[in-house]
Amino acid sequence: MTEVIIALGADNERVKEVFAELFPSEDFFYSDTCVLPAASAREGLLWGFWGDPLDRLEASKNFLEREGLALAKIIAVVDAVELERRGGHDEWFEALAHFSDTMLLLNSKQVSPSWLSAWRKKLKDRPMQLFDWPEIARKNPEIARAEILYPEARRLSQYFEAGGPPPDLPLFEGEDDAAAEIAEGEDDDPYVSEKFFERDAAGRRRYRLSPPQ
Fold first, then answer.
1. Are the C-beta atoms of residues 190 and 184 closer than 8 Å to each other?
2. Is the dihedral of CA 101, 32, 171, 2 positive or negative?
3. For residues 6 and 49, is the Cβ–Cβ distance under 8 A?
4. Residue 148's CB: how many other CB atoms inside 10 A?
5. What is the Cβ-side half-sphere exposure of residue 176, based on CA atoms within 13 angstroms?
6. What average pLDDT score do residues 91-118 get?
7. pLDDT at 65 over 70
């Protein structure tokens, strides 16, 4: 079964640079929209969800199942400078930390060591892996790759393990239409308990994420 890596981040070009460094011999197929025909599926698929990823994350489980694809990892790429500027724990970062198995932290040497240490302590009980990039790769690229891609789900979110959107929910659908379908099945579908996918009585998302600019 073809495996898919979902990459989360604010800057699509920087994320692609990181993956090119991490997997220099791989020929990844990048998709910013994740609308792929089954014939395009092959080893090394990488879906990039830039900016606010909630709509695409919510819909991607159904697409994976329909196309016979398996989710290998969700990897977030985060700039420590932007993280410090935004206080370290805003909703955008919290969403990435909730859904990611692994977080690659860029520019960690450019922020206050005391601030970074305090920030790391707040994450110490999370199952998510956290690595400084590219420092981890410089020590031993092969070990770094093996650790980052170790086949174990480390994310807090259980969305891709159980429950999920109704079988007929398209990958990309008008927000109003999708909201109506989700609201209609709120009492029956376990996936609605995911904090970042919650909607109000009018079908609007409770969370709208603002990534770093």
1. no
2. negative
3. yes
4. 20
5. 0
6. 92
7. yes
33: number of CA atoms within 13 Å, CB side? Answer: 7
pLDDT of residue 173: 37
Residue boundaries of the structural domains of the chain:
3-148
Q: Kindly tell me if the per-residue pLDDT of 123 is higher than 80.
A: yes
> Is residue 176 predicted with pLDDT exceeding 50?
no
| Cα gap 52→193, rounded to integer Å | 19
CATH topology of domain 3-148: Rossmann fold (3.40.50)
Could you tell me what percentage of the chain is helix, strand and coil, using 3-state DSSP and rounding each to the nearest 5? Answer: 40, 20, 40
Give the pLDDT confidence score for residue 44 in this predicted structure: 55
Contact in structure between 131 and 104 (CB atoms under 8 Å): yes
Residue range 72-96: mean pLDDT, rounded:
88
- Which parts of 107-170 are beta strand (E)? 129-133
Q: Quick one: angle between helices 12-22 and 141-148, nearest 10?
A: 120
**Averaged pLDDT of the chain:** 76
Q: Is 203 left (phi over 0), alpha (psi -120 to 50) or beta?
A: left
In 3D space, the residue among 116, 121, 117 whose CA is nearest the CA of residue 84 turns out to be 116
- Higher-pLDDT residue of 206 and 46 is 206
Sign of the Cα pseudo-torsion (113, 116, 120, 121, in order): positive
**pLDDT over threshold 80, residue 86:** yes
Q: Taking each helix axis from N to C terminus, what angle separates 175-184 and 54-66, rounded to the nearest 10 degrees?
A: 70
